[in-house]
Input
Amino acid sequence: MALEILKLNAPKVEQPDHIKRLIEEARLRIDSFVEGRGDHPLAGFVPSDFDEVYDMLCRLAMDRDGCFVEWGAGFGVATMLAASLGFDAQGIEIQGDLVAEAERLAKDFEIDAEFVVASYVPAEAQELIDFTEGPDWLEPGGQNGHDLLDIDPADIDIVFAYPWPGESEVIEAIFERLCSPGALLFTWNNLEGMKIMRHRNQFR
Ligand SMILES: C[S@@+](CC[C@H](N)C(=O)[O-])C[C@H]1O[C@@H](n2cnc3c(N)ncnc32)[C@H](O)[C@@H]1O
Output
């Protein structure tokens, strides 16, 4: 197993006002965005729990800095929270309307974070999501997001992702393939909550 699970406690943090406002505004915009999509096939956009994500980012920022990338960034809130804590933060999202919302939110809150409409799964790792059965919420194809951001995934310090049910193993396999020993994979979903894994082998 190339990933080691870290048992990290993330105490509840008293959020500064600008973070409270960001999270509150993001939730309002997400609600109206989802409502506005109506019966669009991609209507079911589900964000992570931003309060819990912020708590863990504060914990990680105690002994880490550097490059943070959100894989499947949605509204980009985790990316913005990481940027506000001093990470060099960017998000890759395959749906253009979500990236437009992330960019608008970052601009309105004057947060320095970059987003691209692209895939976090490069061509050489597409076979990892090539299922006959399994998750179909992880979109295949798309431009290479790391290339567009001019980031070598081997230089990423922290990846954040919200894996849908059944998707965790795929995201972990992509992280093992692309990232370097020492890098962290931080995931959140509503079944497993938070999980922090450290890459410990050379698997490229
Ligand atoms: C569950 S949402 C999580 C959004 C955000 N990370 C959050 O925590 O609120 C997963 C996102 O991944 C995006 N996604 C799916 N496949 C992708 C791919 N190959 N590359 C980039 N984004 C992808 C979806 O469009 C969706 O917005």
